[in-house]
Amino acid sequence: MSSSTNRKTAADRISGIRLPSDRQTSLSGNGLKLIACTCMLADHGAKTLHAPAALHFILSDVVGRISFPLFCFLLVEGCFHTGNLRRYLSRLFALALLSEIPFDLAMKGKLFDPEWQNTVWLLFTGLLMCHQLTGIREKGDLHYRTALLLQLSCVILFAAAAYLLHLDYGAEGIGAIAVIYYMHDRLPTNPQKENLLSLFWACLVLNGITLEAPFTFLSLLPVCFYNRQAGSGKCKTFFYLFYPLHLLLLVLAAHLVQTY
Asked: Which keywords annotate this record (predicted)?
């Protein structure tokens, strides 16, 4: 059986899953962010503090794989629901700049590594791509095939940029964001299945044909309970600053471990 057939069958099975009712969906956007941040902390902690092999596998290769698909999903949600997309882009750009040195210190042990840029740069690039895709979508005078070709070219261009600039998750990360963007509002009568299917296909893109990171599919579980509410705005600053601050704290912890 071909891999495309396997994927289609898996997607069909997911589309038939009985999802939680509206009363049971209790996770807001903030709830998903908290899960993503916790999983990311486990991943980076295992890498920075050089956890033993078994613990490293659990924290990094299992728990840690949950975070990035959730961040991609939340990015696209933010793209469609933000009141000011340019301000959203500006915040991500500033955060990417702020996070580069902490990221390189934590991952490579030096102030700057041109061969590996932090994840926020990938999210910024993905959001910029979504902005361009929206512009193409909103041009009502374009023929369907022309619009589709322009959108595909846009995704390829941004994926190539992510690859050439050595952004974390690279072209696969851009592809995952593009899939989630494309799936948005495709099933308006059943948003839970839409969320699940979009993340399922995004995880396939992240894995490629090798399924080298199968535990990314665990990210589908919390999304089953997502209620499409952003949550309290009071937490926004915390979630933005968590990325660079947790990296700095891990660098400090690693230094203390080596010293004592």
From this structure: Membrane, Transmembrane, Transmembrane helix
